[in-house]
Amino acid sequence: MRITVAPDMELQQKLEILADAAKYDASCASSGAARKDSRGGKGVGSTGGAGICHSYAPDGRCISLLKVLLTNACLYDCHYCINRRSSNVQRARFTPDELVRLTLDFYKRNFIEGLFLSSGIIQSADYTMELVIEVARKLREDHHFRGYIHLKMIPEASPALIEKAGRYADRVSINIELPTQQGLSKLAPEKNLARTQEAMGHLRERIDERFADQRRPGALKPPPFATGQSTQMLVGADDSTDAVILRRADVLYGDYRLRRVYYSGFSPIPQPSSLLPLRPPPLVREHRLYQADWLLRFYGFKVEEIASDAAPNLDLQLDPKLVWALRNRACFPADVNRASREILLRVPGLGVRNVDRILSARRFTRLRLADLVRLRVPMKKVLPFLITADHTPTRFGLDDDALRARFLPPPRQAELDFHSPPAATVGDLVSVRSGEL
Amino acid sequence: MHTVPIQPVFESWRDRARELLASGVPPEEVLWSDEPQAPGLFATLEEVAPRGAVPKVSPVFLDLARSVAAHRDGRRWSVLYRVLWRLTRGGERHLLAVATDGDVRQLQQWAKAVGRDIHKMHAFVRFRLVAQDEATGREQFVAWFEPEHRIVLLAAGFFERRFAGMDWSILTPDDCAHWDGVTLHFTPGVPRRAAPDEDALDDLWRTYYRSIFNPARLKVSAMQSEMPKKYWKNLPEAPLIADLIAGSGGRVEKMLRTEASAPRPAPKNRYLDSLRDRTAS
């Protein structure tokens, strides 16, 4: 198969096409890298500590890295993807030198933390992986670049190449895209869940080695390797429920020790495929999945407590922690001056940082409502669930059938302003396209 | 009442606070003034001779105080001294663990605001290439920034570690930081016109900014809470924002009106065949 890429395209136009092609990847994180900097070296760059967002686009997303594809020509036909081989999108390809120059020029102006490089698959997985590696190699070895590099791995590439890429990168990722093989078979026929997880397993071994205990006498310095891996799952492109998505995420965190699973609400693309749903999922579904993800990782929740076969999808109106509390009212009220950390973490409205502040402060003082106000705890939310030195919620409050209603967002007023009618929503536009009312 | 004139920097406050503490002067008897020309209304200016030893204080407090000192709120010196007094002479050794205490909370909020301002400076400084040193070949960059608090000294180390391989100056109205590959040094503030307005790479950066934006996910308030408008005037990409927002509805509409394409059979390709064989085996 031949995809024509104009050879003499201007750099500006390539950047336009290949950044546009990369924007559906939600990850732009630049945190969690090993500490390194450019002092005493010949180039620029530093990593370590929290990543920095150097700008924000009007979609609310952080712009931290130069996130581009090496080329958007692709042999694969993933139907949710603008770059699939059957799409009519214009194709372009950077040379490794162009990308190296662009990364360094942007970096020196403090526009970015580094490079996030991915690519459409051309010729073969190995051929493509080698091109990607060559960019990272030039940056690290020829230009002494010590900034952040995130490389997208191709699970079908040979293990030796994946390993080589990981040596230049701070972060590596393989996108799982959909939580089940059925979903992949339908929408991404070239992708395979078992292959992807196998490659994640290899990456995990290398990453674990890097962090192996070096204090033992005679321990060797670990080989340089990325400090973590992440992935992305699409939401709303197939009919997977939130329970299916969260169970897959739980496996990825547990068995493959991923640093992050990104959830990306499928959004309309300029070259849609007829296999995709007409209606993109509401953005709030993605938001609820991130909240649930946080509960799994930092709040001690199990997937089955948040989404189960009985209630497989998250409540779009209320956050999952509040929903759990409303379903488990017998666990409350909790006493802010006595309850364990585990219990306090389950109180709606108390976050990890405030729980830790409370645990620290209550060793020296009995906490009252005013103390919580000073911590900027959302009072309306916590009051039914919490006992303080000067407050005990009535049992009636927790038993009240209307308690859920107290937390619902207020109903929206119908728009009756004919002079400036409300802007069309995505839903309206979908109905234009589908003829659906 | 003692009026204590200081320079508006941490070290100046620390030196005087140490003397006052050693002399046992309680916080309600101190009026801090970081404008030396303007002594307090009812104050008497007198030297406080240190009597007795200076009590020890934890490094946690000193770190907190260093951050708070960079804040612009005029009350910071007196709250710092009150907390210092309570920690040492007041018998509240564990006070910093009580985040619900009004004074502690106030200090933490000031420190947080300063930390955020430093973070935003690390994010939003934009270097412009001005020259290349003929002898050394080192590129020379200049940036203009307007921090909310007096953070240049606290924020500069990051730029040294990151941009060690180039010469740079960051100019601000309060203080300026300079790096020449060997030393980091500071000079007084300068006006805006001292810094260049543009860089040849600005256009490419704007192309990237425009292209990475997804019009189908407009979330303007999320953008503004992280990138408040006060920073926009020094960001080369900011002038694009209004048009990107205005045009997004039409772009999404066009996507949704585009006829969906049906899947086509896979082309004849050796690599794709090999993938199918792998999946089958």
Q: Which strand order does the major sheet of chain A show? A: 3-4-5-6-7-8
In N-to-C order, the SSE pattern of chain B is EHEHHHEEHEEEHHHH
Q: Give the end-to-end Cα distance of chain B, rounded to a whole number of Å.
A: 88 Å
Strand content of chain B: 5-15%
Largest sheet of chain B: 5 strands, mixed
Query: What is the number of independent domains of chain B?
Result: 3
Strand arrangement within the widest β-sheet of chain B reads: 3-4-5-6-7
Overall spatial form of chain A: globular
Low-confidence stretches of chain A: 414-424, 428-437
Cα-atom Rg of chain B, whole angstroms? 28 Å
Instruction: Summarize the biggest pleated sheet of chain A.
Output: 6 strands, parallel
CATH topology of the largest domain in chain A: TIM Barrel
Total number of helices of chain B: 9
Structural class per helix/strand content of chain B?
A: alpha/beta
Low-confidence stretches of chain B: 40-45
Cα Rg of chain A: 25 Å
Shape of chain B: elongated
Please report the total strand number of chain B as a whole number: 7
Considering DSSP H and I runs of 4 or more, what fraction of the residues of chain B is helical? 40-55%
- Our measurement of the CA-to-CA distance between the termini of chain A, rounded to an integer number of angstroms, reads 41 Å
Structure description:
The complex is a heterodimer of chains A (437) and B (281). Chain A has 2 domains: 11-214 and 221-306, Aldolase class I (TIM Barrel, Alpha-Beta Barrel); 327-407, no CATH class. Chain A is built from 17 helices and 10 strands. Chain A has helices spanning 11-20, 96-108, 125-142, 159-168, 181-187, 193-210, 242-256, 283-298, 303-306, 320-327, 341-344, 352-361, 369-374, 379-382, 395-399, 403-407, 426-434, and strands at 55-56, 62-63, 65-69, 114-118, 148-152, 171-173, 228-235, 260-265, 334-335, 386-387. In chain A, the strands form 3 sheets. In chain A, strands 3-4-5-6-7-8 form a 6-stranded parallel sheet. A two-stranded antiparallel sheet of chain A has the order 1-2. Chain A has a two-stranded parallel sheet with strand order 9-10. Chain A is globular. The two termini of chain A are 41 Å apart. Mean pLDDT of chain A is 90; it is low at 414-424 and 428-437. Chain B has 281 residues and is α/β, with parallel strands linked by helices. Chain B folds into 3 domains: 2-119, no CATH class; 125-194, no CATH class; 202-257, no CATH class. Chain B is 42% helix and 12% strand. Chain B has 9 helices and 7 strands; from the N terminus they run E-H-E-H-H-H-E-E-H-E-E-E-H-H-H-H. Chain B has helices at 10-22, 59-69, 76-88, 102-124, 152-162, 202-212, 220-226, 241-257, 270-280, and strands at residues 2-5, 30-33, 128-132, 139-144, 167-171, 175-179, 184-188. In chain B, the strands form 2 sheets. A 5-stranded mixed sheet of chain B has the order 3-4-5-6-7, with helices on one face. The interface between A and B is large, with 92 and 80 residues.
